Amino acid sequence: MTAPRRSLDDLLLYRLSRLVGVAGGMVIRLCEGRFGITRREWRLIAVLASRGELGSSQLAEHAQLDRARTSKAVGSLVEKQLVSRVARAGDRRQVLLGLTESGQALYGELFPLVTKINAELMGALGEEDATRLDESLRRLQAQAERMVQKAVLPKADRGRRGAGGISPPSSRSP
């Protein structure tokens, strides 16, 4: 076991967030500035490109987004004619989402640019370190998923919070 963490910079999640903020910022600028889509929309496009047609719930799960955010982003992508809704054969109530030709073209143009940014970032590591990092990230992902399954955490109740959005410490559950 490692020593207790003493500062924010010692926390893995904070450091990963900072890395994503810096390196991911380049991807966001590409998405928004050059392609006119948000990072969330890009994530949905990338999932649909790699997995094919999906239902909205499946798409949300694969993209690791909540259903409300997924629905909003899908609506925007449909308006932009990058994603289409197709009734599922045999059950017209169920809809499959898929990339349109324009969506596939956007993916085909943007994915290599994102891959280049990723490769340049990973260039800071040698092959052995990159392999170790990949394995470590797989193990951390699996551990995080196990923790979520076991965790008993309160859900946000945005309707009952004070004006600042945070409940006073005395009213929080342990």
Defining key terms:
174 residues, mainly alpha, Arc Repressor Mutant, subunit A, two-stranded antiparallel sheet, 2 strands, 60% helix, globular
Explained architecture:
- Keywords: DNA-binding.
- One of its GO terms (biological process) is response to stress.
- It holds the Pfam family MarR_2.
- It is a single chain.
- The protein has 174 residues and is mostly helical.
- The protein has a domain of 119 residues: Winged helix-like DNA-binding domain superfamily/Winged helix DNA-binding domain (Arc Repressor Mutant, subunit A, Orthogonal Bundle).
- Helices cover 60% and strands 9% of the residues.
- The protein is built from six helices and two strands, in the order H-H-H-H-E-E-H-H.
- The chain has a two-stranded antiparallel sheet with strand order 1-2.
- A hairpin with a 2-residue loop joins strand 1 and strand 2.
- Helix 2 packs across helix 3.
Strand order of the largest sheet: 1-2
CATH architecture call of the domain at 11-129:
Orthogonal Bundle
CATH top level of the domain at 11-129 is Mainly Alpha
- The CATH H-level homologous superfamily of the domain at 11-129: Winged helix-like DNA-binding domain superfamily/Winged helix DNA-binding domain
Q: How many distinct beta strands?
A: 2
Q: Approximately how much helix is present in the residues?
A: 55-70%
Distance between the termini: 25 Å
Beta-strand percentage?
Answer: 5-15%
Q: Treating each run of at least 4 consecutive H or I residues as one helix, how many helices?
A: 6
The average pLDDT is 88
CATH topology of the domain at 11-129: Arc Repressor Mutant, subunit A
Shape: globular
Low-pLDDT parts are none
Largest sheet: 2 strands, antiparallel
The secondary structure category is mainly alpha
Radius of gyration: 20 Å
Give the helices and strands as they follow along the chain: HHHHEEHH
